[in-house]
Amino acid sequence: MKNTPSSERRKPDSDDVLVIGISSRALFDLRESHELFDAQGLEAYSEYQVANEDVYLEPGVAFPLVKKLLALNEDEVDHPGVEVILMSRNSADTGLRIFNTIEHYGLKIERAAFTNGASPYKYMSAFGIDLLLSTNAEDVRKALGKGYAAATILPGSAASGESRQLRIAFDGDAVIFSDEAERVYQQHGLDVFADSEREAAKRPLSGGPFKPVLEALHKIQSAYPITDNPIRTALVTARSAPAHKRVVLTLREWGIRIDEALFLGGRSKGEFLKAFGADIFFDDQQVHTESASAHVATAHVPNGITNERDRSD
């Protein structure tokens, strides 16, 4: 495989680049200033941010993830690359503190949308963003509704940073895959679900909102040897045998490699994700994200039948 300079290797406007939009509150710890905004309003918040624009913010829950993603661009291997774009509801004036902090940590983030209170998700198409990570659940729902991969970053623990390898874990149904099988389970119960999956084992599942993200990661992974790879992926699902077979055959049909697959049969996911060392975990069900967020950075994907029911309650 030929090695080429990074300036030639990864063009920000290339269709193959994995482009991730991230909110400022997911990237940095803005709890103090956000509490001020809630208590005293926009004017007090703006004055505070301007007065402290040279005081660097502490890393947020998604900071280690972003650092590892951007580090993929620093080697000499020919792969599509990653771009991270800041998507912030701050104004450009109050956002100066955020960019000062980005510069302080040496993060290669050059593009941004500061929307002064409006939802920045509307610029996802113009920026070519593949995945939105935000603390604003409404922005995430809107992005998913338009067909983008999106997830709400939850408060909790970030990765320990012990490994330089980027480790990303996904739930299956309603995240990587469609929720077609989950709908059977929710509407008809476990026995009907098991029979349905056994009968449909050789029929691939449809793709969910995160299938393109997994494909993009796979393209980067494929540029490296399997045994010395900077990315490791895992499927962490409540499925068990025999419902696991359809998942395995679907991934094979898609031509996508998952490094680890954990079929937990309903067991709590948190300890398993801690053992995997996930830099982030994506799941559609809040019961699983609550378990996971105590151990690793976790993002809720409000997609599928479970979330439809939650909104109707």
In short:
By secondary structure, the protein is an alpha/beta fold. The chain is 40% helix and 15% strand.
Average pLDDT works out at: 88
Tell me the Rg in angstroms: 20 Å
Structural domain count: 2
Low-confidence stretches at least 5 residues in length (pLDDT < 50)?
Answer: 1-13
CATH topology of the largest domain: Rossmann fold
How are helices and strands ordered from N to C? HEHHHHEHEHEHEEHHHEHEHEHEH
* Helical segment count: 15
Number of strands: 10
* Structural class by SSE content: alpha/beta
The profile of the biggest β sheet is: 10 strands, mixed
Estimate the helix proportion, in percent: 25-40%
Which of globular, elongated, flat, extended, rod-shaped describes the shape? globular
Beta percentage is: 15-25%
Major β-sheet strand ordering: 3-2-1-4-5-10-9-6-7-8
CATH superfamily of the largest domain: HAD superfamily/HAD-like
- Any guess at the CATH architecture of the largest domain? 3-Layer(aba) Sandwich
Name the CATH class of the largest domain: Alpha Beta
> What gap, in angstroms, lies between the N and C termini?
54 Å
Please characterize this protein's 3D structure:
This protein is α/β, with parallel strands linked by helices and 313 residues long. The chain has 2 domains: 6-152, HAD superfamily/HAD-like (Rossmann fold, 3-Layer(aba) Sandwich); 166-312, Rossmann fold. It is 40% helix and 15% strand. It is built from 15 helices and 10 strands. It is globular. The chain starts with 5 loop residues before the first helix and ends with a helix.
